[in-house]
Each structure stands twice: as C-alpha cells, then as structure tokens.
Amino acid sequence: MAFSPCSSLPAVAAITCLIAVVVGCYWPVEARIPTTLDGPFEPLTVAFDPSLRGNAVDLPDDDHRVHRRVKGFEPEQISVSLSAEYDSVWISWITGEYQIGDNIKPLDPKSVQSIVQYAELRYPPTNEASGYSLVYNQLYPFEGLQNYTSGIIHHVRLTGLKPNTVYFYQCGDPSIPAMSEIHHFRTMPVSGPRSYPERIAVVGDLGLTYNTTTTISHLTSNNPDLVLLIGDVTYANLYLTNGTGSDCYSCSFPNSPIHETYQPRWDYWGRYMQSLVSKVPIMVVEGNHEIEEQAENKTFEAYSSRFAFPSEESGSSSTFYYSFNAGGIHFIMIGAYTDFSKSGKQYKWLEQDLANVDRSITPWLVATWHPPWYSTYEAHYREADCMRMEMEELLYSYGVDIVFNGHVHAYERSNRIYDYNLDPCGPVYLTVGDGGNREKMAVHHADEPGYCPEPLTTPDEHLGAGAFCADNFTSGPAAGKFCWDRQPDYSAFRESSFGHGILEVKNETWALWTWYRNQDSDDKIGDQIYIVRQPDKCRFRYMLKSWIADL
After folding, report:
1. 3-class state of residue 330 by DSSP
2. Taking the chain, what is the end-to-end CA distance rounded to the nearest angstrom?
3. What does DSSP assign to residue 329?
4. What is residue 181's three-state secondary structure?
5. Which residues participate in catalysis according to the annotation?
6. Residue 466's pLDDT is what?
7. Dihedral through CA 44, CA 50, CA 51, CA 52, nearest 10?
8. 69 phi and psi, to 5 degrees?
9. Is 542 within 8 Å of 520 (Cβ atoms)?
10. What's the pLDDT score for residue 545?
11. Within its chain, how far is the Cα of 242 from the centroid?
12. How many CA atoms lie within 13 A of 288 on its CB side?
C-alpha cells in the first residue's frame, strides 16, 4: 500500500484528509503536518515554563525499582542490542553481585556460563548460543575513595535469525541452574527501500530521575521497535564513591583528587531499564558522562563493558563508533570523545562505511553523536566546532539525511543546514538531550542578551583535546560576532522541556518525526514534521561540493 501523509493522523482527521486528497482539495489547516519541503521555517522558540521540574531528582538507593530481585547467579539487567544486519542480535546480562569498598575481589567470569536458549515458539527452546563474559573494575588510587568491581557481564550473539520475527529466549547458565525468565524480542525487517521498523524512539541524556521514569513511561507507550540512546546514560559521575551526589559535581566537590563516580548507579539503571530493553533493542553511543576516569588513566570502562556493540560486524575496532542497518535505514554512531581528525582511525572507518552504503537498499542515512554542532543554547554553545570542521563535509557529501544529538538538556530542531548556511540538501539536526537527567535543564540561549559565552570558555578538554575552533562568523546576519543577536535562521524550533522523540520512516523519501513532552498526555504532540528526502535534486549538489572540496 502506498504511503499517504494522512496515515499518521488521528482517525477523524485522517478521514477528512483522505476525502480532501480524493476530491483534490487542500487539507484542512489543523490536519496538515508540515514537511521540510515547506522550509526553511521562521525560527520559533517556545517559552520555558518555570512551573516545570527544570531540576530533576534521582531515584534513591531504596527505591524498589532499582533493587536486585534475583538470587545467586540468576541473570539481571537483561538487554537486547542489534548487530549490523537483521539476522543477528546481542543478548546481554549480569550475574552475581557487584562489590564496592576498600577490599574487593573480582568475580571469576569463567565461573558462570554465557548461554542463550531461544526459539520462535515460547517453549521449548530449539536453539542455543554461547558467548563471552567479563568483569570490569573502577579503581581509585587515593585514600578514602572506594573501589568497585562489577558482577559478571555476559554478551551472546544470536545469528541466523529471520527478519521481522518474534523470538523467545532465556539467558543464563543452565548447568547451575540459573536461567532467566522467558523474554522476547522482534528482529528488524530485511533491508530494502520499502522495509522499515514502524517506530524508532530517540532519547538522550537520560539518567535515572523521576523525570527519567516519566520519559521511559511515555516512550514505552509509543511501542517502539528500537531505542537510540544518544549518550549520557546513568550520570554515575555526579556522585562520590561513598554515594553522595550533586546536581553539579564541580560545584559541590571542587577538592576531589579525581572525578569520582558511584558505579552502583549503573546497576540501578540496568535494573530499571530491563522491562523495556529486554524486549526492545537499544543502541547506545558514548557521551561525556561515560568518560569516568580512574587509575592508570583508564576511561569509559563501564560503557564499553556493559553494552554490546556491532563494532566488529561493521568493520570498526572501537566501541565508540560503529554502524548498523534497521530495515532501509543505515545508522552511523560516531564517537565525539575519541579521535575524530581526518588522519585518525575513526575518520578512515567512516569514509569506508559511507562508501559501502547502497542507497537503493538503505535509502535513509542517519548519523548520531553526543555533542551537537548546531545548538543555539548557551550550554555547550559551539563546543564541538572542531569535530564539525573535520567531519561535516564528508557527511554532507554522502547525503546524510538526519542527525541526532544530545548533550544540551533541551529540544531543538534545525532547518536543513550545511556549514552554518541554509541548504535544502543538508541534514536536519535534532537535539534530544532532554531525557530527564539530574543536571539542570538548559533554558538560556546564546542569542539572548548577556548569555553569549566568552569564546575561549567554550572548548571541552575531552573534545579534540580541548582545541578551539569556534571563530566569529564571517558572513550572514552574525558576521563579525560569536553569537547571533536573535534566534538563528538555522534554528527552526526550540523548547526547554523533558521528553523524547519517535521516528517513523514511511518510505524511501518520507519520514515522520514527532517530539513528545513529559508534561503532556501520551498522545499530545510537542513538535512534528515530515522529513522529506530529495535524492534526485541533491545528488548533483553533493557531488559538486565534494569536487570543490577536493580542488
């Protein structure tokens, strides 16, 4: 059945819309969803509502939703993630208890098997796969700081799966026995121009607050087939190792000898999220709150250990960047907190990955990374300009359609843009760092009087070694300035509210993007637009830009 823009509307509006289409009339104004073909749009800011919970409160240790409910080596924190193609997924879980204190002894990963039993029928399981296990430590060489060692983390890859098919599974060690309850997941549809998952949830900067629980409740009610988490997972690094937390670590703990973390927050998060991610695949890219420096300058240990990534399957040598297909969409997860220079491994991998994409099979190309290139909020303003200068031309030359970012704790949708210029063939940038975390909501904009940051304060030491690349604009309405004095033309819509987004790709050229706010009912829409690809119009433009860049 051919896609109709009426199909996403409520029943009454959809009938009215279809009648209008049949008789050749225009759609009623209240029924018509805007499209990127109508753009560029006049910039719009929805004023911040001070009655909202701009500051979020973490779930405490004694909340029943974060308690360990299993015994012995029974699995917990169970999750599903995708491999590079539809015919394979990863199942991950943890067995055994973490330890925190002065005298910790890591568990032996070899003491428990990593087994998944699965089938298309709920019972009996007709297939079995084994995987690998590990533990990680978070160690601090300073007196008074507590060390941490994780439970045994298991990752098992299932292969040979059918597309768009429900599988039932149990994970654990059947020899103890210590097996989980029966869970289920659905595989992605086969890659093709008319084959897409129905709904993809997108969220960033999630944490584990009461606002987070609202976000996940609303997100779950939208019945997603896949969840993208665009960095900043648990915010365990807002805590000291003794469990004392703060909304602002540097403000509350300025004399800490190292940026501490309270690793049990990762376990709390995994327990809370299990009801969703044990059945809906979740794909994660790193954010700055996953750095978590420890002894011997080790970083990202929790992030790299707890999640399974299709790195090897997609030709990557790193957990920081990888790619995968979900039906006719090719997703590229890019690492901002590792080397992104043109001479680095990631850039060379990205070039090869983009060159291998067949747009007749995966027409949609979606890229994600944590810090946004085009955010107009004061928080993190132009922080990632060095990354943009290294990578933007490459992504544009291959026709990336949509970019998802987090980091800024608010929502913003751009007009199509390239190199700070409105461009009908540039990506739509969507900042969704509004998942509900403990840090304050971003409410001020760099174009407001008094809120344009001093340029030299904008670099992040963890992004490109803290290099400064954000010079004053050289053309346009902000020429000679570091900030605009009004909402920039490239910013189509912005609002400071917690929430999440849903992407529904309809066919090879149309996709519906909807943003939902936490303070609304489940079905009320905060922002909505059809993102429309124009491959025939843009193909020559991409080639020309690439040719000029090579001169």
Report:
1. strand
2. 46
3. E
4. coil
5. 380
6. 86
7. 60
8. -110, -5
9. no
10. 53
11. 29
12. 17
The token duo for 289 is 């709150």
3-state secondary structure of 21: helix
Q: Which two tokens stand for residue 108?
A: 């032996």
- pLDDT for 522: 75
Query: How, if at all, do strands 89-95 and 76-82 pair?
Result: antiparallel
Q: Residue 34: name the closest of 549, 544, 527 by CA.
A: 527
Question: Cα separation of 176 and 545, whole Å?
Answer: 61
Instruction: Return the bridge partners of 97, or none.
Output: none
Residues 6+ apart with CB under 8 A from 518: 211, 214, 215, 218, 436, 497, 498, 499
**Residues 274, 78: contact at Cβ < 8 Å?**
yes
Q: Is 297 helix (H, G, I), strand (E, B) or coil?
A: helix
Taking Cα atoms as reference points, which of 311, 358, 363 lies closest to residue 335?
A: 311
Distance separating alpha carbons of residues 427 and 444, to the nearest angstrom: 25
- Beta-strand ranges (E) seen in 150-309 are 152-158, 166-173, 178-179, 183-186, 200-203, 226-229, 282-284
Q: Where are the beta strands (DSSP E) in 174-281?
A: 178-179, 183-186, 200-203, 226-229
3-state secondary structure 465-501: HHCCCCCCCCCCCCCCCCCCCCCCCCEEEEECCCEEE
pLDDT on residue 205: 98
**H/E element holding 439?**
none
Structure tokens at 348: 């060379």
At 1 the pLDDT is: 40
- Can you tell me the distance from the alpha carbon of 429 to that of 195, in angstroms, rounded to the nearest whole number? 24
For residue 154, give the 3-state DSSP assignment: strand
What pLDDT is attached to residue 70?
97
Q: Which amino acid is at 317?
A: S
Ranges of residues in the chain with a pLDDT under 70 are: 1-31, 53-55, 540-551
Burial 482-502 (b: 16+ CB within 10 A, else e): bbbeebbbbbbbbbbbbbbbb
* Cα separation, 365 vs 533, whole angstroms: 10
Ranges assigned E (strand) in 306-375? 322-326, 329-333, 364-368
**What's the half-sphere exposure (Cβ side, CA atoms, 13 Å) at 206?**
30
pLDDT of 543 reads: 60
Distance CA 188, CA 546 (A): 33
Residue with tokens 């006719």: 328
Extents of the domains making up the chain: 44-532
At residue 8, the pLDDT reads 45
CATH (residue range 44-532): 3.60.21.10
Report residue 528 as tokens.
Answer: 């909505």
Number of H helices, E strands in the chain: 8, 28
Q: Tell me if residue 415 falls in helix, strand or coil.
A: coil
Question: Tokens 């995966």 correspond to what residue?
Answer: 362
Instruction: Tell me the whole-structure pTM to 2 decimals.
Output: 0.93
Nearest 5°: CA angle at 33, between 397 and 23?
115
